[in-house]
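Incident review: delayed structure delivery

Summary: a single-chain prediction request sat in the queue longer than the usual turnaround. Root cause was a stuck worker, restarted by the on-call engineer. No data loss occurred. The affected request and its eventual output are reproduced below so the record is complete for anyone auditing the incident later.

Affected input:
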Amino acid sequence: MDDSGEPVRLREKAYASFTEHLLARDFHPGQFVSQRQLVAMTGMPLGAIREVVPRLEAEGLVKTVPQRGIQIAHIDINLIREAFQFRVFMEKEAIALFCVSASDEMLAGLRREHEETLEKALKDGETPELELHAQAIDWSLHDTIIDSLGNGIISKAYRINAIKMRLINQERFRITGRVIPVMREHLAVIAAIETRNPQTAMDAIAEHINNARNLALKV
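Output delivered after worker restart:
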């Protein structure tokens, strides 16, 4: 059957459902689960689960352990270092091009949403709703920079790493209580992009990512 067929559609749905539950913390790092437990949790047929496990294993999200089952990836020092190094390599190159190609209107919109979020945090304090909004803005800025390349291979690889980054965030340094410094760091990155100088932008994004990495490694 070709790629438009039902088995492929079910595999994609199984993958999407698994990652959704993973990011919702329905699984815990290092936890062992069986294929039938995944069927029960995702609501997907056993055949789709069996077919998607090799993909999840190749992406480093799970590991199959003989006699024990499927183990959810551990959040360890090695994973943190590798995931952040991947981000630095990808985002420095992407932002160098983004700072030249992004329209003034796009940059103005990015600046506005960050300034409004910062202002609200300073004025009213952080609420769970504001933290969720700020987290979405955080991820969206980085996704926007990567997607501006128009390269599907890079975007897909980045999204896989982004799942690991979000797991690291949940375990190591949630945005809770950090909306103000995160928005300020992003505004510094946006200001660097606005210079239209690739090296300035690359330095800013590297500093931002390395700050997050150091925070994750300290915990």
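Verification: The first helix runs from residue 6 to 23.
Action items: add queue-age alerting; document worker restart procedure.
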